[in-house]
């Protein structure tokens, strides 16, 4: 009877979700349009950076430098004058302004070591950080080629051979699309289960459940499996149709193994959603709690920034979060083709954390049910 009650209550939860049109739209958008927009909207390391050049020399070398900047890394250079620098930078028109001084070519050939001024708008952090090195490399290369004037370049004593594994073209789309799916698994599972509990309270159906021959364990288990199944199906659809199909992102490992890890992760995060739902009295309150919870879970799990670059205290604390182990498991399977012999420690850690989260959430849920009664 207990399994039958859990099954029937879970089907009731999915019917309630289907009648909540806004939640259905949220799920569809999160695992389709949101994944595509977020992945394709992330530019490459440097993409179409706006640059202006002040050519006070007008020499052959300065024209070579101007012609070396072109898409896709930079927009075609805009030629401005010395008096335009401050106004253009104040208005944020250009990320880089390169000033080639008068007599630059003549001083270079005379061995006087002339200087070129590069103005950088450091408020555009991503472009400023990577583009600064790009500009310097381009200018130095053009100067070296011009100074050599056809002379064969001296061979370096060491040849560095770079091999980019798992993403040979360094395409950010591959990373962005998969990580967006991974993040939405956590986000939607917390939202759906917490919203399901609050929806019961707002519609007054909690009282109906309390007079039925069902236990708090059965009520909570039904919400966990039903909402977890919805997210799991949406995850499979997103990986197969959006990531693999629309964005042509290669998936190296077993999707089935990833979904197994996702199911274990959903066991923990859905419990977390119910735990938060017992404290919130309305959807706005629940939304604020979700924001306070999901931001550190996603930012500190290792998906955006490698955990090794974080303070040791943060690394230790985040070992208690299921997202830390899920991100490592998902990246190992989907990016590097890892099998169960590689990711089993993360899988066991997720299951253990899920059991603890479920027990804590169930205790709080029983307390909340008794309060309502």
Question: Can you walk me through this structure?
Answer:
Keywords: Cell membrane, Membrane, Transmembrane, Transmembrane helix, Transport. InterPro entries: ABC-2_transporter_component, ABC2_TM, ABC2_TM_bact-type. It is a multi-pass membrane protein. Pfam families: ABC2_membrane_3. The chain has 373 residues and is mainly α. 66% of the residues lie in helices and 4% in strands. The chain has helices at 2-19, 21-31, 33-41, 60-67, 85-90, 104-109, 125-148, 172-203, 205-210, 216-246, 255-279, 283-299, 312-317, 322-334, 340-372, and strands spanning 51-55, 78-79, 96-100, 117-120. The protein has a 4-stranded mixed sheet with strand order 2-1-3-4, with helices on one face. The longest helix is centred in the C-terminal third of the chain and has 33 residues, at 340-372. The relative contact order is 0.11. The model has no long low-confidence stretch (mean pLDDT 86).
Itemize the secondary structure elements and their pairings.
Blueprint: H1 2-19, H2 21-31, H3 33-41, E1 51-55, H4 60-67, E2 78-79, H5 85-90, E3 96-100, H6 104-109, E4 117-120, H7 125-148, H8 172-203, H9 205-210, H10 216-246, H11 255-279, H12 283-299, H13 312-317, H14 322-334, H15 340-372
Parallel strand pairs: 1-2, 1-3
Antiparallel strand pairs: 3-4
Transmembrane segments: 173-198, 219-243, 255-279, 286-304, 343-363
Domain ABC transmembrane type-2: 143-368
Family: Belongs to the ABC-2 integral membrane protein family.
């Amino acid at each position: 009877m207990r399994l039958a009650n859990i099954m029937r209550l879970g089907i009731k939860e999915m019917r309630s979700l289907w009648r909540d049109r806004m939640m259905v739209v949220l799920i569809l958008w999160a695992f389709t349009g949101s994944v595509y927009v977020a992945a394709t909207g992330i530019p490459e390391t440097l993409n179409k950076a706006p640059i202006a050049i002040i050519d006070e020399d007008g020499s052959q070398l300065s024209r070579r430098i101007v012609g070396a900047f072109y898409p896709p890394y930079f927009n075609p250079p805009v030629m401005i004058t010395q008096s335009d620098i401050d106004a253009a930078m104040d208005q944020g028109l250009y990320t880089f302004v390169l000033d080639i001084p008068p007599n630059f070519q003549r001083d270079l050939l005379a061995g006087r070591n002339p200087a070129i001024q590069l103005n950088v708008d450091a408020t555009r952090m991503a472009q400023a950080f990577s583009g600064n090195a790009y500009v310097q490399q381009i200018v130095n290369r053009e100067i070296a080629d011009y100074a050599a004037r056809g002379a064969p370049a001296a061979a370096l004593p060491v040849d560095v051979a770079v091999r980019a594994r798992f993403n040979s073209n360094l395409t950010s789309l591959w990373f962005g699309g998969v990580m967006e799916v991974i993040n939405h698994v956590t986000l939607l599972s917390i939202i759906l289960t917490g919203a399901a509990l609050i929806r019961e309270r707002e519609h007054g159906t909690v009282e109906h459940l309390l007079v039925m021959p069902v236990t708090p364990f059965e009520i909570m288990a039904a919400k966990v499996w039903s909402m977890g199944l919805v997210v799991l199906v949406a995850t499979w659809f997103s990986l197969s149709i959006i990531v693999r199909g629309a964005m042509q992102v290669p998936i190296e490992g077993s999707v089935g193994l990833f979904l197994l890890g996702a199911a274990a992760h959903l066991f923990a995060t859905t419990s977390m959603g119910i735990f938060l739902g017992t404290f919130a009295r309305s959807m706005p309150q629940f939304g604020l709690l979700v924001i306070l919870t999901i931001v550190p879970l996603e930012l500190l799990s290792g998906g955006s920034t490698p955990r090794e670059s974080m303070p040791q205290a943060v690394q230790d604390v985040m070992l208690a979060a299921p997202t830390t182990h899920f991100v490592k498991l998902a990246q190992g399977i989907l990016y590097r083709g890892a099998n169960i012999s590689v990711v089993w420690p993360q899988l066991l850690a997720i299951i253990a954390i899920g059991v603890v989260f479920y027990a804590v959430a169930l205790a709080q849920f029983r307390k909340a049910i008794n309060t309502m009664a």
